[in-house]
Amino acid sequence: MSWLAGISLESAENDNLGVDWVLQYxxxxxxxxxxxxxxxxxxxxxxxxxxxxxxxHGHGKALLVCIRxxxxxxxxxxxxxxxxxxxxxxxxxxxxxxxxxxxxxTPAEEIRSIYHAVTWSxxxxxxxxxxxxxxxxxxxxxxxxxxxxxxxxxxRAWSRKTVLTIRDLDTIRALFGEKVAFYFAFIQCYSIALVxxxxxxxxxxxxxxxxxxIYGSALCVWCICFVxxxxxxxxxxxxxxxxxxxxxxxxxxxxxxxxxxxxxxITGQVTRVFPGWKxxxxxxxxxxxxxxxxVALGSLIVVTxxxxxxxxxxxxxxxxxYLEFAPxxxxxxxxxxxxxxxxxxxxxxxxxxxxxxRDLYDLAQTQKTFVMNFITSFLPTILTAYVYVPFGKxxxxxxxxxxxxxxxxxxxxxxxxxDGSRFQQEVIYLSMTAQIFSFxxxxxxxxxxxxxxxxxxxxxxxxxxxxxxxxxxxxxxxxLLDPPGETPFLQRLREEADSDGYEVEEDILEMCVQFGxxxxxxxxxxxxxxxxxxxxxxxxxxxxxxxARENQRPPPIRADSIGPSLLGLDFLAWMGTLSTAxxxxxxxxxxxxxxxxxxxxTVFIAEQAYLAIRFIAATAMQKIFAETLYQxxxxxxxxxxxxxxxxxxxASGRAGSPGDSPGRVRQRVRFHExxxxxxxxxxxxxxxxSPSPTTEKVQDDVLKGSDREAAFWNAHSYDTADxxxxxxxxxxxxxxxxxxxxxx
Amino acid sequence: MSWLAGISLESAENDNLGVDWVLQYxxxxxxxxxxxxxxxxxxxxxxxxxxxxxxxHGHGKALLVCIRxxxxxxxxxxxxxxxxxxxxxxxxxxxxxxxxxxxxxTPAEEIRSIYHAVTWSxxxxxxxxxxxxxxxxxxxxxxxxxxxxxxxxxxRAWSRKTVLTIRDLDTIRALFGEKVAFYFAFIQCYSIALVxxxxxxxxxxxxxxxxxxIYGSALCVWCICFVxxxxxxxxxxxxxxxxxxxxxxxxxxxxxxxxxxxxxxITGQVTRVFPGWKxxxxxxxxxxxxxxxxVALGSLIVVTxxxxxxxxxxxxxxxxxYLEFAPxxxxxxxxxxxxxxxxxxxxxxxxxxxxxxRDLYDLAQTQKTFVMNFITSFLPTILTAYVYVPFGKxxxxxxxxxxxxxxxxxxxxxxxxxDGSRFQQEVIYLSMTAQIFSFxxxxxxxxxxxxxxxxxxxxxxxxxxxxxxxxxxxxxxxxLLDPPGETPFLQRLREEADSDGYEVEEDILEMCVQFGxxxxxxxxxxxxxxxxxxxxxxxxxxxxxxxARENQRPPPIRADSIGPSLLGLDFLAWMGTLSTAxxxxxxxxxxxxxxxxxxxxTVFIAEQAYLAIRFIAATAMQKIFAETLYQxxxxxxxxxxxxxxxxxxxASGRAGSPGDSPGRVRQRVRFHExxxxxxxxxxxxxxxxSPSPTTEKVQDDVLKGSDREAAFWNAHSYDTADxxxxxxxxxxxxxxxxxxxxxx
Lengths: 744, 744
Prior knowledge:
Two copies of one chain form a homodimer.
Chain A: E1 21-26, H1 32-48, E2 52-57, E3 62-68, H2 71-87, H3 107-119, E4 139-143, H4 148-160, H5 166-176, H6 178-208, H7 213-240, E5 260-263, E6 270-273, H8 276-283, H9 286-314, H10 320-323, H11 326-353, H12 358-395, H13 401-404, H14 422-431, H15 433-469, H16 474-480, H17 487-498, H18 504-521, H19 528-550, H20 565-588, H21 596-624, H22 626-647, H23 652-655, H24 695-700, H25 707-713, H26 720-732, H27 735-743
Antiparallel strand pairs in A: 1-3, 1-4, 2-3, 5-6
């Protein structure tokens, strides 16, 4: 862990006690006996997969299952994963074929294998625990524990520096996996690139003012070039992190329905296929979905917009001051309903589209979210820019339908005047105030809420604990009371189990929307990129704080790109070019003199310019970064060369063990190891040939941790399933009822 | 040669006598002694590279050097090439590492290795013969001989069938290499795809008439889908033929100037690098070039067009009937001058851009040719469609500058009327008459010319031969006279040496232009695709006839695409959508009622539709043909698997010889082999470590051909260099002069 060398605080509260993974089992809606049966199955599945378990009670009617993967089992899984990576040409360093176990290079690699051990289906050698799906609907959380020390150290380091280095990104990758690292790489790359338009913006603001042709063109060129550059950067990072093309080896989703199985004649590998054309036809449903979303959200926005304009600028009656806020309030209240309705439609559609892997599923879902986000984020400003300001004078007077409807309402008798600066004001609001609001809403508010909720929860639990204390046997009491040494750890465990999962796609989307504001409306106020630049300094750190402190640690999933948002960036750069051209054309001179034909001509020319610049930029990037892009090829070439030499017998001596060190199985020690006290009595042999440790191995796994760790894993000498059953009984019975029953 | 199993005519005239490669050395402009010295160097270089040579005289002051690569040398080169292919992941079948020699699977593979043996630099193990460049400027032809029997059989078979099958394409590939095969695959795929618009066209012609919105939209969609489909098809074919990504292992052009050498740390391979950004900056010169070309060709076309319109429709004076043709004639005469001037600029530019490989160079050159071709092919019709017909009434009367210049010319006093159907007539002409004309011009005319020229040449040679007979020694006489058994072969040899090289890019470009006519103007006359479909049936066979009968056999170069024309197709599909929209808008109703703004709106919408359809089509193709596109990955995966298994020692027994047959060196017998009579006395050992056969090997190479073959290779028992020197002396001295000298 050279990348974390500086961190060796190892404070007692931050120790994870060797817990690799945590499941939260909520049985509130179940009969006691059913719950116990289900929990016993869970325990059986986990131990059958060769995992060690400990159970503790959570908040309310919930159990927390702490899982530990024996180190040799983990080593085997890591090695298997590496061999698979190598075979699918994701990585290019031949793993040693003589060793059956490998040491993970990063915590993320380790946790990924743990994640696989817990979630993969039994055929693949996992325990088949699929949270919130099918049989395991009641598993409401499934997460690894945070490495508090590392996160604290990183947060501290980042608050002191201006620019993240590639080593920081490597650290993120080592802690949270590539998918999360790609988000931080993107925001870092984007923020650094923002320096250019920010500088241009300052010049533009001083010398050209808003709606300048020069600044607008420069901004569009920057947008296009940035997107093309990011594609190269992404490729490079994927190579650096050894994840290029990682999508192919992702396992099937449990929900995936295939139509036929194809056995590859060469590799003997069985692929489960769902015809591409069918999926494509189903994907075409995106078009009606987008239309429905556009109509639903669009009409909501238009109505809100129109009534707001009407009330603030036409209506002049009673309560005008209060009514002005009504449309916005109604909008804010009804938007979540519509959005959640649309999201549920989107989820069903994506489900119907039947993707093989979780990645593809997420990709399709994000696409739909993007469509909705695009409409809600951009439509209001688009309406201001292209409808209200240019056509307001014609349209607004027609808004007096209420009057025409016969109602007697006082109207402003003055001639209606369009507020020409409204568009610019909105853009300023978007780039400054809205960014700060969204930061608070996204990071600070949830943090405060979470803290308060936890306080309340702890109070509730204490109260319940006091009543319970008097009503159960001593053994159950011991289970319900946290051992003193474990208290801070269990408290943290319960907090993390209560937290939300971290959705990296949402953060990426947020940055895309910001990029969209800049591309579409940036020309209206040259200081927009400066505002975004400052905001992103905070945003980057805030997002990391949210990830490390507020949310559950995400499973370290691999990815070789920021995903569908890349397409979104392309789209926004294109829209941006058209929009910038139109805005400059409309707002630059006298708005009344603008002709439709000249406007169309401007936009048409802008589009051709966009196509040309994008083509040139893409070609240029590929030429300039040819060497970078070629690195991957060189590695592949080297593999082939080694193979050929080995087959020629030239390199037979050397190539036999091209891995790191031959012979002995090295295992990384992550905490002080002591004595094995825990004996897995329930572990049985596996009937299938799946790669899982034998019983001997599990027993061999020596837990040489600290005293506290040993104490944790050795806690209840009886069966964990029994312990869980007892806890379920204790928690599910209402102590008050029991008391009254006793009294009766 | 299972693919040619049906052909076993083996007629004596078509026998190539074991000649692998032919060089034509022309020394007309050199002093006799210089020519002899140069020729001796040539002989030394060839024999040093381990090649066998025979020399015969050509037409006029030219020698023909017949080259034969000893079979074991050839086997080594084929094996080396396969190993390299494998290492660069072009192919996925591990070549046996224990064998040093391999048998070519196709004639093309064999000839490619022969081509390398002749043209590669000495460091790479070739003879370093670069025709028409540097030291070897006087080598005016360098080609393999045609396989007449195979070509005849193919021509016969194709004339009987309607549609080429994939086996026919495989045959083309086996005979002429992948680059040529890709052209035939393209024209086949394009022609089959044309059936759809042809059918639509017939319906459109019967029910909708020209300028129909429905037919136009369908045509545009077809164009976009076809281009996307071809991309998939190309990918698939490249996989079938094992040439994906073949560009990387092409050798450096001798003209390439590198700036630094980079040694790869892993593979130890040295790459000679020229910075990408420099090349990109140089490539930007394409923009001024395109502008110059557009201005030069554009003004020529505009002037021709204007004067033609003026003479035919305004002028009414003397010789009107004759003068009408004058502009076209002047245009036809001046176009070659301008084109050749532009081509020479283009060549210089491409040279300056400094490409590493011949492929990249050709690509850049073809791009420039495309620009020129685009202007000359499409501008006249574009002028008719968008300038003459809509604005003719306004512009044409202004053409009377001649009158205004004071000249007294009779003008048509009638009101000028624009010929509204002129555009449609031009389109009909383009799709029918012009295609037939170009077919004659491209295939029939050169054939007739060539035949006549050959007759004349033979007559000249006979005359020269008669005079020579009397003036030289017997030994030289023997050299000058063709041995009776060789006469038909040598005649064919000389004919082929005189032929032009086959330029596959030109043929591809011709098809692109045809596609462009269809995409841009097809909506004006629905029967255009039908005309093209019929034309292409003939074109395909005509092109093969040209390739097989009229031109030299091209070196079987590999490629994994039709090259830059693919970009051209994309561009034409885009232009086509805009153009179709505009034409339908302008020509559909009353032309006078067309407003600029509505026209712009139509074109703008069409462009968005184009972008959307292309995106959907590309996605759909990738979904639908996912399995096809994934084949390559499976093969790569299998290689990795084999490697891993081999390194694990599991497959050590099997993987040792995964090639075809172990142990013995198999050599394919291409003609009956007899006794070795030819002893290469000049062959010397090589000082560098380059892969070339040792002296023993060359002497071992047993030529067991037919008697006639043995006679050919055994012809002159003395040194070939001496034979050449004698021939040079005999041919360079003018017999007439000699005679007169004798007389004097």
